[in-house]
Amino acid sequence: MEMLQIIILGIIQGLTEFLPVSSSGHLILAPLLLNFNDQGLALDAILHLGTLMAILIFFKKDLLKIFLGLFDKGKDSHRLAWSIIAASFPAGFVGFFFADWIETSLRSPKFVAINLLIWSAVFYMADRSAKNHNQAKSNLIELPPFKIFFIGCAQAIALLPGTSRSGITIAAGLISNLNPVAATRFSFLLGSPIILAAGLQKLINFISQPAALQNYTHLHLLVGLSVSFLVGLIAITLLLKVVEKVGLLPFILYRVVLATAILIKLYQ
């Protein structure tokens, strides 16, 4: 695989892991739209590791506070920390039992396009509802455990390509009466354990299959990791600013245009 393709895929992963447009969907679509050979799950693992590093660096203070809150009942973050762990179970359960089937059976452009359209409608309704709500909360500590678990259940659906983990958890946060910025921040915090688990699983899988590395040099992997990491940091900053000012609408429009273009290309 050429270095330019590695860089482009790193940019795609870094942007789409955090923007509500579906990273897995874009990595599936890249070969179709850009006439690349399918990069395979080995490179996917490296690119996901880069974006994991981005979220750990960007939210290091919040994540450290939540981690310490696990062991100190006197801290305000204690209930939030344990609620996040509980809310990670739905996605963990679905991922453990169905991730391989999803990767092999639903890794198709048509499925991605349909899912992009379906969840765009849900995101739009959540976004409009939030703009009509004047009492949205900004403090995550005030979020009741059952609402955190609801957002966790929504996160499990994001394993379907074309959904978007960030998009569906932000939408669930808006429905749970969080303001857009708080919903976005919580989406990242809630997603950290799942992104870590998914990244480690993919890493272990491709390390255990040396043949998966035949198409890549160490330089290829380092460049892919670095690009997805740096672009991921930019994407997090961008998303927080955009949702604060205009909400999810720009991303919804992009999803609809992309899905339409895919379907037109498939049925030409």
Describe, in plain words, how this protein is organized in 3D:
The protein has 268 residues and is mainly α. It has helices spanning 3-16, 23-34, 40-58, 60-69, 77-105, 109-131, 145-157, 165-175, 180-207, 218-245, 249-266. The chain is globular, with a radius of gyration of 18 Å. 44% of the residues are buried.
Which SSEs are present, and which pair or pack?
Layout: H1 3-16, H2 23-34, H3 40-58, H4 60-69, H5 77-105, H6 109-131, H7 145-157, H8 165-175, H9 180-207, H10 218-245, H11 249-266
Helix pairs in contact: 1-2, 1-3, 1-10, 3-9, 3-10, 4-5, 5-7, 5-9, 6-8, 6-11, 7-8, 8-9, 9-10
**Terminal Cα span:** 28 Å
The helix/strand series, from N terminus to C terminus, equals HHHHHHHHHHH
Radius of gyration: 18 Å
Total of DSSP H or I helical runs spanning 4+ residues: 11
Q: What fraction, in percent, of the residue positions are helical?
A: over 70%
**Pairing-aware structural class of the strands and helices?**
mainly alpha
- Low-confidence segments, given as residue ranges, are none
Q: Major sheet: size, sense and barrel closure? A: none
Q: What is the overall shape?
A: globular
Total number of strands: 0
Oligomer: single chain
Mean pLDDT across the residues is 85
- Approximate strand percentage: under 5%
